[in-house]
Amino acid sequence: MATTVNDKVMYLVLVAAIVAGLGATALGSGVVGEAYNYRETVSVWFRSVWVLQPRGDLMAEAPLYYQIHVLIGLALFALWPFTRLVHAFSAPIGYLFRPYIIYRSREELVLTRPRRRGW
């Protein structure tokens, strides 16, 4: 079986992140609940994490559904290296220039013309 347990767990976490994000959008936009402007807290907190100066006070002020969405997203980043999604960063460049279909025979044949590589 090609799909590992880690991959299946990643699928569940990915679906949970999508569902939590949709729920946070519905609840935070005012469609279902009270409108919440996440741009003043959650997005500023997110930028502070990326510049390695996290401000936890901003996330503490956010509603629970945004905190859950962020927690699931962080779990997604933690699981990423242990699944097949890690290949998104290690795909060989030569793959882009390979022939579409490679036909191989079981016998050694003398070619009448030289092989072409790439497109």
Automatic annotation (TrEMBL):
Protein name stated in the entry: Respiratory nitrate reductase, gamma subunit
Stretches that traverse the bilayer: 64-82
Species annotation: Mycobacterium tuberculosis
Catalytic activity, EC: 1.7.99.4
Keyword entries, A-Z: Cell membrane, Electron transport, Membrane, Oxidoreductase, Transmembrane, Transmembrane helix, Transport
Stretches assigned to the NarG-like domain: 2-106
Catalytic class of the enzyme: oxidoreductase
Keyword Protease: no
One of the Pfam families matching this protein, by short name: Nitrate_red_gam
GO-annotated biological processes: anaerobic electron transport chain
Gene3D superfamilies from the UniProt entry: Transmembrane di-heme cytochromes, Chain C
GO MF assignments: electron transfer activity; heme binding; nitrate reductase activity
Source organism superkingdom: Bacteria
Protein localization: Cell membrane
Topology of the protein relative to the lipid bilayer: Multi-pass membrane protein
One CC-aspect GO term: plasma membrane
InterPro entries registered for this protein in UniProt: Heme-iron_electron_transfer, NarG-like_domain, NarG-like_sf
